[in-house]
Design brief:
The protein is mainly alpha-helical. The protein folds into 3 domains: 5-59, no CATH class; 75-145, Helicase, Ruva Protein, domain 3; 156-339, Peptidase M41 (Methane Monooxygenase Hydroxylase, Chain G, domain 1, Up-down Bundle). It is built from 13 helices and 5 strands. It has helices spanning 5-8, 21-34, 56-59, 75-85, 97-102, 109-125, 133-145, 156-175, 209-230, 238-253, 285-312, 314-327, 332-339, and strands at residues 182-186, 196-199, 267-268, 279-280, 329-331. Strands 2-1-5 form a 3-stranded antiparallel β-sheet. A two-stranded antiparallel sheet has the order 3-4. Helix 9 packs antiparallel against helix 10 and helix 9 packs across helix 11. The model has no long low-confidence stretch (mean pLDDT 86).
Length: 359
């Protein structure tokens, strides 16, 4: 039974009393599963992402004896899922599904299936008989960020601001000791983003405070680069601020990483949905004010680190931006090479244009 919460909700919560058809269905289900005439050998499995609304009688031993939380697959699980979906697809010898698995943290089986289907479509449109690693990378970006918007006309001044912004993120990600390294860097608009820096996938179960502080600095390094280079700031850091503020607030209210607030929980992870996020707990006005001050202190410290890092490596930042403006996209290996002062190989020839329907 999929989505069992449709019939298994707690009884007595309806607006029309306790005798609606849904409750009659639930009562009959309870009787069939563990009633007086339950001699048939039937095993029942059910799935839901709302275990909090299920009736208690449905979950007691004799009905559903065991509850299993199915989380997103780890890197080994993702590789096995990719191998299953790749069985009937012609993969080029250069496609390493282990590498793809490491770059797709957080994706579930449906996402991975969609990724390989998208890669197959890209290969077919380009007239290739096999799926290459380039197709897989582009498909991953499409799944995560949306398709490229190359038809969008972007002013050169905006391209330059975007380049410095993204290189700021990448510089912090590559040089801070506990940050995830750069997987990809681009100034090609995609989805709602003017450009983006994609870090390496992260499957860590436990994250230390220094690693969280580095994450804050990476998130704010784009704005830091804008301020250092141009002496002014733009609206491009909106999403960065949302991510950084949310992370800093969790450090203070959920993970006990503020000496002033102490080791107390000011948020509950018992959301309505599995994976639905934490809910704030009631707190006094003074405590809420202190939380805001601690969050701001974490963000200010992270921003100061990011500004200092950009100032220290400013000549290299300009060099990387000049390369990025020409190539538009850099892989993690290419970014690392340019950061170390190496020259990149010339750009490969452009792929053939997609086939068009006959007129």
């Amino acid at each position: 039974i999929d989505e069992i919460d449709a019939v298994g909700r707690k009884r007595g919560l309806g607006f029309q009393g306790g005798n609606d058809e849904r409750e009659q269905t639930l009562n009959q289900l309870l009787v069939e599963m563990d009633g007086f005439g339950s001699g048939q050998e039937v095993i029942i499995l059910a799935a839901t992402n709302r275990p909090d609304v299920l009736d208690a009688a449905l979950l007691r031993p004799g009905r559903f004896d065991r509850q299993v939380v199915v989380d997103a697959p780890d890197v080994r699980g993702r590789e096995m899922i990719l191998r299953i979906h790749a069985r009937k697809k012609p993969l080029d010898a250069g496609v390493d599904l282990g590498v793809v698995a490491r770059r797709t943290a957080g994706m579930v089986g449906a996402d991975l299936e969609n990724l390989l289907n998208e890669a197959a479509l890209l290969a077919a449109r380009s007239g290739r008989g096999r799926i290459t690693m380039r197709d897989v990378d582009e498909a991953r970006d499409r799944v995560l960020m949306g398709p490229e918007r190359r038809s969008l006309v972007v002013r050169e001044a905006d391209r330059k601001v975007t380049a410095f912004h993204e290189v700021g993120h990448a510089l912090a990600a590559q040089l801070l000791p506990h940050a995830n390294r750069v997987a990809k860097l681009t100034i090609v608009p995609r989805g709602r983003a003017a450009g983006y820096m994609m870090p390496d996938a992260d499957d860590r179960l436990h994250v230390t405070r220094p690693a969280l502080e580095d994450m804050l600095a990476v998130a704010l390094a784009g704005r830091a680069a804008e301020e250092v280079v141009f002496g002014d700031v733009t609206t491009g850091a909106q999403n960065d601020f949302q991510q950084a503020t949310g992370l800093a607030r969790r450090m203070v209210t959920e993970w006990g990483m503020s000496a002033r607030i102490g080791k107390v929980a000011l948020a509950s992870d018992q959301g309505d949905y599995l994976g639905g996020g934490a809910q704030p707990l009631p707190m006094s006005e003074a405590t809420a004010f202190a939380v805001d001050e601690e969050v701001r202190a974490l963000l200010d410290a992270a921003y100061a680190r990011a500004v200092a890092l950009v100032r220290e490596h400013l000549p290299r930042v300009h060099e990387i931006v000049s390369v990025l403006l020409v190539r538009e996209t850099l892989s993690g290996e290419e970014f690392s090479a340019v950061l170390q002062g190496h020259e990149l190989d010339p750009l490969p020839p452009a792929p053939p244009a997609p086939a068009t329907l006959p007129g």
